[in-house]
Amino acid sequence: MGLLDGQTQYSYYNTPSGYGDYQFVTLENIINAFMFTYVGEGKIISKISRTDVQFHAMRAIQELSYDVFRSVKS
């Protein structure tokens, strides 16, 4: 889920001058979505602390940034 900052989805995707701009997802949204989807009774992970999920989410973002660090908007 991207943060549109008051911009509508229509204007984001249909404005040629905005091509190449990026949407951002907060770390809190990533953690909340993971906890909601995968953690709980009868789900993949029955019990885990939010701190553990936060650690792994931060590591995932760190690894992703290593992979895309050299990419620049042209």
H and E string = HHH
Chain-averaged pLDDT: 80
Detail the poorly predicted runs.
Answer: none
Write down the overall geometry: flat
Which range best describes the helical content: under 10%, 10-25%, 25-40%, 40-55%, 55-70% or over 70%?
Answer: 40-55%
- What count of helical segments does DSSP give? 3
Percentage of residues in DSSP E strands: under 5%
**Total number of beta strands:** 0
Largest sheet features: none
The radius of gyration is 16 Å
By secondary-structure content and strand pairing, the structural class works out as mainly alpha
Question: Ends: how far apart?
Answer: 24 Å
What does the model show?
The protein is 49% helix and 0% strand. Helix 2 (27-38) crosses helix 3 (50-68). It has helices at residues 9-13, 27-38, 50-68. The radius of gyration is 16 Å and the shape is flat. With 74 residues, the chain is mostly helical. It is built from three helices and no strands.
Summarize the structure.
The chain is mainly α. The chain has helices spanning 9-13, 27-38, 50-68.
Secondary-structure map:
Blueprint: H1 9-13, H2 27-38, H3 50-68
Helix pairs in contact: 2-3
List keywords for this structure.
74 residues, mainly alpha, 49% helix
